[in-house]
Amino acid sequence: MQRWMWGLGAVVAGFVALVVFSAMLPESMVDKEGSIENAGDLGTRAVAQVLRNNGVEVSQVTSLNAALAAPAGSTLAIYLTDDLSSSALRKLADAPADLVLIFGAPEYGRLDDTIAALLGDTMIQQLAFHTHLTVDPGCTDPDAVAAGDIGTVYYGIYDASESSMQCYPDSDNVSIYTDLRTSAHRVTAISSPYMFTNSEILLDGQAALALRTLGRHARLTWYLPAADATQESLFEEEEEANHELDLLPGWFSYVCWMGAIAGIAAAAWQGRRFGKLVPEKLPVAVPAAEAATGLGRLYRQSGARGHAAAALRAWTLSQLAGKLGIPANANPQLVTQRAAAALRLDPARVQRIFYGPPPGTDAEFVALAAELRLLRRGT
What we know:
By secondary structure, the protein is of the alpha/beta class.
């Protein structure tokens, strides 16, 4: 019964450890929307591969500090799926790298705060459904002109001040491509979702526009904003769990930690401890040969080579003490000197044989036993 309880406790402790370890793992980027590691429809792996094939160094980051580390003379592409926090926007507005803002899927809602902070207060996001399949550049921007027509637009940006380069406009001057220069860097916004995703990158001029805007510099940092930069939703009923563990009650993690600590404490309290071997008087008379054989088997079964080696060394010293003219409890220095002189051996070798470290393997134990046997025969 006790063994069964210990086995169940070990299984529960292992499960708890697995849950805690899984919670500490970083979020996987393989299935995340906009990730350059995602080969699905909403991933952007195709864009990254084409850019790398054209000599652009592409790296993906998820933390704000890593994104801000992008140096001047490089491109920082921000794949937006939610509004960034005010603190993050202030830092990105002063980033040395040129920015390319890429809007995520339309169901994530509006990004007015991000647009106003990084592009200007006069620019707002507006819905801009186009009934036709493609949109022509309608501007003189060399990147847009080289790319040509692009696919259907869902969202666009309206610039009331007309201070930026607006491309791919509709009849209400709501444009999908917005480009302007600030005192810190150049900012380009691609406000149509899905344009650079794997499912639509090969349609019309999307691929050319991606290569022109994202490949302006030899280095591209692809930033997927994580929890350290995004704002919390103002409507709690619309919030969704970001992780499976968020579905569990708040006290669950505390119970897991308490269970783990209790399990460790119980193991330390009731666990088996290995100490020195204690000699025990046998209840019946047993022939010496059988007792030695049984003790040797116990040593071998438990892997106690150190105890076995100590017994062999002590027995050898007791056999040689009379021949060397020393007491059985002589100090190691005297034993080494007398044995080395009598056997004509190097004192260092004798010291190692009698007082060296215990053997770590069976082969080392056999070698030590052979050397002790040679010492006995040599005297």
